[in-house]
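SUBJECT: A protein chain and its fold
Encoding: whole-number codes for local backbone shapes
Chain under study, with its fold:
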Amino acid sequence: MSLRNTNIDKLQQENFDVLVIGGGINGASCAAALAGKGAKVAVIDRADFASETSQASSNLVWGGIKYLEGLEFSLVRKLCLSRNKLCRSFPSSVREIRFFTAHNRNTRHPRFFLYLGTWLYWLIGNGFTKKPSIFSKKFVEKKHTVINTQNCSGAIEYSDAYLMDNDSRFVFNFISSAMRQGAICANYVEAEGSSQEENGWSTVVKDLQGGRSFRIRSKLIVNACGPHVDFYNQNSGQKTKHQHIFSKGVHIIVDQITPAQKVLTFFANDGRMFFVVPMGDKSCIGTTDTKVAEPKTHVTQEDRDFILQNINALLCLEKPLTHNDIISERCGVRPLVVEKREADQAADWLKLSRKHIIEVGDNFISIFGGKLTDCLNVGNEVVRFAEQCGVNLSHSARRWYGESSKQCRDTFFYQAQVLKIPGKHAKRWWRFYDIDAFELLANIRRDCHLQELLIPEIGYYRCEAEFMRKREIVTKLSDFLRRRTNLAMIMNEETLRNHLGIKEVTKLLFPKTFEQQWQEYFSVTANDNLRASK
């Protein structure tokens, strides 16, 4: 029996301290925190973990320098400290990176004023990163020839951080951490509504793969449904002071624009910050910021045109980027928090705060907003509220986040070297699997055929497919291609379809349903492309 089926049986049969509904960054961090502190935790998501907003970010872990303009010093301070903590706690996965910001003389702030702002930002963040720098136009022309300097007065450089791998993998690692601490997690399980009983909450759910409906019983509910928090609160009779409005963000992925491992930062023609973020040998460009009425959205031709027009104006490329250069796209909504009485008056969502709000009532916690950078704060706050709601945390002093120790990591790298695993592949294994990566080495010692490299582009081995099938609840092919890895981001549909290694991995992940999974994935992808082209 698969891990997912075993977990669904446990969800139906056992009683839990906490049911976390939603497996995005908020739900995943809460699950890891609560399970790590000793609570008996269940986690469900109606799709895959990290399959909505949490798979569509810029992959940045940053303190929010742009929020200084709105004088949100407290929020910037909080996010900077959270960024610092993530960098210290996940040194393999969250790395400092320089942001090289070309200054257009037509922007609303002078270059030196922005330079002073980066120093303020550095000071607010306790001087954790490298110090800011300021450069002349001649320097930009000499060192960054890809930048269009026609209206450039110079540049500023400062530091923030980014995720070495994709955001959804980072989120799943919190789910994995929760499972190591005993949490029972299942994807493609939809919560239809929660109601109070004598001993707590009863939540009606449906297994969207198997079709059966059942109840999950828990003392406490955590509504971590991201942009769907309001909808689930309505279904469960919960009244809150806050609600969400939505802003759509789109990125496009193209072949690498510059080998410099820096984030190129500009101001788009709508005044927003606009990035070219390194993604291996690809570049991620964006983002847009468009108000939308519903969380379900998709990339439009207008979105692509906006990004392409801006990037072609800001860079000096041998050939302007066109729609044909787009390898893949990322699209999601930012759930922005407003008080209900202010929702209709929030005309300028660009000025809305990106802070999170947590509301608690009747042992029912609702999380509004939230960012990747803020995940540790969200987890810690929910732990505190859970304790106040009477959840017994048997390991309340235990640290629940962070990768395993440097000594453990160095031991793994040594053992990987003995088995002749290339260093860059061993580093990715550690980022993906942490202490469980030792299991990959043990399996290779048991069967040398598991050391076969199946997907050279990311250094993916046969032993990983075996591990993911057993341990990572890969239920659909898109879970693997889009979220457990970033293959669907760095390869177009044709490359994916014709890749023999990916086909072999699919057979290993789904030995009984390979053809069904393969056809389903590419038919859905084709339909999405057809819709997006209209």
User: Anything to note?
Assistant: The longest helix spans residues 514-532.
